[in-house]
Amino acid sequence: MLRSDNNRIDPKRRNVLDHRKKQFADPAYKESSYPHRLNFYAVPPTADITLEQFEQWAIDRLRILAELEACSFRNKSAQETAAHMKPLLEKYLPLDSNSSASSRLTAERQKDHYSHFILRLAFASTEDLRRRFTRVETMLFRLRLNDDIPRERNAFIQSLNLDWEPASEEERRSIASELAALSGFRKAGRDEEESWFKVDWERVPDLVEGRRVFLKAGKAYVPSREQTSMAVTEFTKRLERALELTARALPRLDEDDRLTPILDHLSKNFITPDASYNSSSSSVPGADISARNVDNLSQNFPLCMQNLHRLLRRDAHLKHVGRLQYTLFLKGIGLNLEECLVFWRASFNKITDDTFNKEYRYYVRHAYGDVGGDSIRRGGGYSPYSCQKILTEHPPGPGEAHGCPYRHFNVENLTALLQAVGITDQGVLRGVKEDKESQKFHMACNRVFEYVHKKEIKRVKDEGIMTSAQLETIVHPNEYFKRSYLLKNLGKDMTKSENVKMEG
Amino acid sequence: MAEPVALPTTTDCVNGEEKKEVKLEDLFGDVDSDDEFPSLRPKQQTPQSSSSDAPSSPTEIGPIGKASDPEVLRMFYQRLFPWRHLFQWLNHAPTPTNDFAHREFALTLRSDAYLRYRSFPTSDLLRKEILQLLPVRFEIGPVYTTNPRDRKQMKNSSAFKPLAKELCFDIDLTDYDDIRTCCDQANICIKCWSFMTMAIKVIDVALREDFGFKHIMWVYSGRRGAHAWVCDKKTRAMDDQKRRAIAGYLEVVRGGAQGGKKVNVRRPLHPHLSRSLDILAPHFQSDILSIQDPWALDDRSEHLLSLLPDSGLNASLRAKWNSSPGRASAQKWADIDALAKSGASKSLDAKALLEAKQDIVLEYTYPRLDIEVSKKLNHLLKSPFVVHPGTGRVCVPIDTRKLENFDPLAVPTVQQLLSEIDEWKGEEGKGMQDWEKTSLKPYVDYFRTFVLALMKDEKDPRVKRERDEDSMEF
Ligand SMILES: [Zn+2]
User: Fold this and answer.
1) Does residue A45 have a cis bond before it (omega within 30 degrees)?
2) Which range among A230-234, A377-381, A484-488, B28-32 shows the weakest confidence by mean pLDDT?
């Protein structure tokens, strides 16, 4: 239905989108039938739907995708995400198995099929949107594939004809010991009935990255149980390609003036959490955000930034990624460029002005967008790192101090750091340890936040000063600072307002 | 030194505009990972090492100043640098193609100006600009869809995209500072160079046997590290996702200074890891236990204990080591098994102990890669054969067939090479190059052989593939 060249709406048919045009009117055309629960979305839909359906279905899917993305930003595990998504999927985008024999199978699958293609149109326009769309659609696909009934999953994968060459018996024998090492906990020696595929390693980069395949001369030997992963990789690859084709066809879509506003609206509602963090919303009015006050402000910093601050004070130096992470954070709390340069100059007190100017000044200015390419300057430099970015990109190497202490420190060092910043409560420390062990780094950070601000949080809740939305899980270091600062300085404002009340 | 200005003037390139579009992460990376500048971290260790005491300012005098002296650089680029081979290496054919013409070069001048997006239609024009600007070093970036110099004229900015680059690896001895005892920071000696030898062996064999890459060149970085350039045609075209996959496959030692245990690998060991262990185990015995002696001091041996799984065993080990201070690492390592066998701990899990010991071998020997260099198609890396301005040593290729013999401290310096030309007494053959009169010759010869083999495979891969397919059918 939604290919650009057969996308015109017949002006005489109000409220109905008829996209049947010659290309799809060929013998291949038929009302889509959906033999499988899952869909590789290889064929665009062709039947008519109303504008209302068009919009509602897209919004429902978007809700699901946004929620999935939020799960990943909050670093939820696969199981947690599945549990979190289950009721939402049932409500907005249900997809029953064949064996359920539900009477709604076709309707559900049609909605899944159409909504996917509508969002393709909404998110094909920029590279950034395409990348994010591919990412979350892949998450959705993987979630559903994992939760498919094995028999139906296998039938679906078989139907894809993915052209995977089985490794011959003889070949398998010649590398038996290597393959056995990959069979994991299965008993070595006993020739399990596992079959192996042999593909160019480039086709399964994620399996290579995780050392989940045996590699020999550029070929990857993939155990059959990794088929799911291969299907997911294939899904991503095809979707990326399809989106680029859609992007090229997009300009012609503008002719349809009824779809454009809907699509625009959809893509605007899919804002990045990173981008949504802007400096105007992060500023704290009345605070003394200056180079000489950073030491004082640092008590309101999240642990990652406190750690960088402490190391900077100890060593009078920070390695590059740490410097970048900290500079952008300081920028985010409202430290202006001049003050930031003063701050770094004073902090690097073991080097000469000359060295500082030559080796560091430029990079600080660059971070603020004071120098650099047009696009960088226009955007005011780089955004402060979100927790997601700190947790997943550039993990610290030997000798580096950036990253998230909850993730990148071991338990002993993390505990020592927490104690050093004044968190000595055994219950909190134990909780942090458990969070860390179950990889819930956000939980750990928020747990510490709640402990440190226990009194203030109770007060704002009791007095209704902050809504629960204003107190939801923190997923950005700058949000941590802002909330911490506001809570710790509540007293002053509140006394004032109480005074006003009394006078009134 | 009034040079004729036939090339774009330097004012065009030194102003801030030329620096634009540099990724911020890359810029920050350039400061610390740049082996030209000693780390700025204040020293807490005793300052026994001489070179790290040197001021970090580039204006310093002495032998270091000499290597970046304009006259020295001019002579070097004019008489010693193997321009023709460098051209063929990047061009993959005898006559200029876009592989060369659309390739980015980045120049670092003595003023510290960093000029990006330079490109050159021919080898001669590259040489001319280098001789005019006399950079202290230059780097090689990717081949772009269009000429990098024209990138601003592109209507559609996304039309200017990196297309191809060698897959690169960067290993630096500073990443071993927590386990090497002989030197730290910018200093190296033949003892700690063995970390590089181990690293090269492990990575090289994985790239060849596992991924099937063929044209791999290792280059000494001039001071304390090595770079690898994987030049196969198919490799050069890989996107970032594939580069990330290889980087992840090869990365084993993870975690920062506070991360605790740095090796956490699944069992059974992946074939790449068991092969690596086979390669590394003998080095662990000699280069680590006897030479580095990493656990001689008490706080160091506590680190060893922190990597072992059984607290009962640890208690007996600690008691034994306390009673004989200064016990050598090799003995301490042997104590682990000896006490385990003697039943020092009742709860001992022999399998867990064996695995912990394997992890320790890996933590102390497995290559520590600066993995960001390998993940990005558009990362720049210092060209082979430039002079390291700090040491004066030429960044020469390392012949992996004679890997164990490579001595970084015996690599010729630019000053030495220039005096060798002067001292040369042989017969001047027709068309003889100056580098042939010096100890740079074996390195250039090696490079030439490498480039010829690469060009041969490049010439007509289609014919070759057809032949391969034939042989598979019959
Ligand atoms: Zn050494």
Assistant:
1) no
2) B28-32
Residue with tokens 């018996």: A169
Q: Which residues pair with A222 in a beta bridge?
A: A197
Domains of chain A are 31-158+236-268 (1.20.930.80), 161-227 (no CATH), 279-499 (no CATH)
* CA atoms of B231 and B233, how far apart (whole Å): 6
Interface ipTM:
0.84
Q: What angle do CA B177, B180, B185 make, to 5 degrees?
A: 40
pTM of the model: 0.67
Ligand 1 centroid from CA B196, angstroms = 11
Q: How far does CA A492 lie from the centroid of its chain?
A: 38
Q: Taking CA atoms, what residue in A is nearest to B23?
A: A372
For chain A, say whether B263 makes contact (Cβ under 8 Å). no
Q: Which residues are in the CB-under-5-Å shell of ion ligand 1?
A: B 182-183, 189, 191-192
What's the token pair of residue A456?
């203030």
Question: What domains can you pick out in chain B, each with its CATH number?
Answer: 17-28+66-149+162-172+212-252+369-469 (3.90.920.10), 271-365 (no CATH)
Per-residue burial over A422-442, b if 16 or more Cβ lie within 10 Å, else e, is: ebeeeebbebbeebbeebbbb
- pLDDT per position as a tens digit, B94-130: 999 999 999 999 999 988 889 999 999 999 999 999 9
The whole-angstrom separation of Cα A205 and Cα A202 is 6
pLDDT tens figures, B393-452: 999 999 999 999 999 999 999 999 999 998 988 887 778 899 999 999 999 999 999 999
pLDDT band for position B314 (cuts 50, 70, 90): very high
